[in-house]
Structure formats: C-alpha cells, structure tokens
Design a protein that fits this description.
Blueprint: H1 2-105
Length: about 120
C-alpha cells in the first residue's frame, strides 16, 4: 500500500509538473501574442501616419498654387489702387495747394465771437 501511495504521489507530482509546464507555456504564448499585437499595432500606426502625411502634402501642394495665384491677384489689385491714388493726387494737388495758400495768405481780421464789448 505504501508503494501504491508513493506511486500515486509520484503521479500527482508529475501531473503537477506537467500542469505547471502547460501554464508556463500558456503564459509565454500570451506574452508572445501581446508582443506581436503591439508590434502589429505599431506598424499600423506608422502606415496610417505615413498615409495622412501624404494626404497633407497633397492637400498642401494643391492649395499652394491657389495661394500663389491669389497673392498675384492681390498684388495686381494693390498696384491698380495705388495708381488710382497717384492719379487723384496728380489731378487735385494744384487745387489743394491753392486752397491752403488762400487760407494762409488771405486773412480777414475779425473779432473773436466770444469777445464782448465792455462798456
């Protein structure tokens, strides 16, 4: 009976060792799966990042031409307005100078409106 008990105990110990091995293998498998999942996620993130960067560059290039044409158009409009202002200046400068000189040179002496006659 002692031999049978020691054999049963030995069988239980072997089963326990086998179970520990299975558990260890399961843990290693889980750890490996987690590592694989992380690396796969990192790859997907990099691919997504690259695709978004390409989309942004394409968007930037498509709108870069628009900003250049808009800038050229604004420059043309600004030049046109400056030319209008120059023409208005040249047209009215003589009249303005004449009005200023008339105001300065032709002085009409008058009493100030707040001055009251003292009796």
């Amino acid at each position: 009976m002692a031999a049978q008990q020691s054999q049963s105990i030995q069988t239980l110990l072997e089963a326990e060792k086998e179970a520990a091995k299975v558990v260890q293998q399961a843990r290693q498998y889980r750890v490996q799966r987690l590592k694989d999942a992380r690396s796969e996620a990192a790859k997907e993130i990099e691919e997504y990042k690259k695709s978004k960067e390409q989309e942004f560059k394409a968007f930037e290039q498509s709108h870069a031409g628009n900003t250049q044409t808009v800038q050229a158009q604004i420059d043309k409009e600004t030049e046109g307005k400056q030319e209008e202002i120059r023409e208005a200046y040249d047209t009215h400068k003589d009249q303005v100078v004449k009005k200023l000189l008339d105001r300065v040179v032709l002085v009409k002496p008058e009493l100030h409106r707040n001055l009251k006659k003292v009796e």
